Amino acid sequence: MALRSDWLPALAAFESAARHQNFAHAAEELHLTASAVSHHVRKLEDRLGVALFQRHARGVSLTAEGRQLADAASDALTDLDGVLGELKAGRDDDRRVRITTLHSLTYTWLVPRLPTFSAAHPDIHLTVDTEIALARFDDGGPDLGIRHGPGHWPGLTAHRLMDDTLFPVAAPDMPGLEKVATPADVLALPLIADLSRQGWHDWFRQAGVHGAKFDERLVFSDATDALNAASFGLGVALARGCVAAPYLDGGRLVRLPGPAVATRWSYYVVYPAHRRLRSAARTFLDWMLAQVE
After folding, report:
1. In this predicted model, what pLDDT tens digit does every residue of 218-245 receive, in sequence order?
2. For residue 18, which of 70, 102, 106, 133 is within the disulfide window of CB 3.0 to 4.6 Å?
3. CATH: 3.30.1370.60, 3.40.50.1000, 3.40.190.10, 3.40.50.10860. Which one for 165-262?
């Protein structure tokens, strides 16, 4: 017997009634009336020529034939539900952008701006990875990456996001800060460093303080941790402007005397040169570039 499309409503009503062992509960689940569910089941029984339920004063129960059909219907709907879920997940995946970036830039520059992106593109979902190790842009890997470097990496297309500068910052209530009037005076304070390629030696030389001998009391692998330490009065940190901005705007840090030294490297958005960006990833890339115009 061929399964025709006009059997489907009756089979759906039967499967729900069989699962609940109750027409009223099936009706509630399917947004039908109990009499409509009963009608669908009767119609199915007439077509098959067998009784699927035993009806009695306390309700209904499946016959042997009804149990056989209920098991088959349940298996079929489970298979369909799985396929539908996979198809929907695939469609949702087209609207998800995976980005690998730096923790410091994520915390201080990217996250504060994301509400604007989410409001403009509520259908695009983001996965942000801030691992220190450089991610591989394999199939299934990130769509975009933000890197701090010279701007050329084999196999990657790079868009300049922004340049940056270095300058010293400290907590406004740090002891001894009132005595700092020149770049040379910074040497009298505890210094905090991170693992950036440009550090205190570069800044003091650009500030005209030659032959400076200094002691880096604390060294952090991440620039954000260095700024947090400075905000607690542990010393003076050498900050990158885009990372330090929220600390300065919020009053947690103040800038000390001395020049803002241009960094040798810049921030870039990168992606595989051989791969065409999906629509959602292109939208996110364009949005990031617009943030710094």
Report:
1. 999 888 999 999 999 999 999 999 999 9
2. 70
3. 3.40.190.10
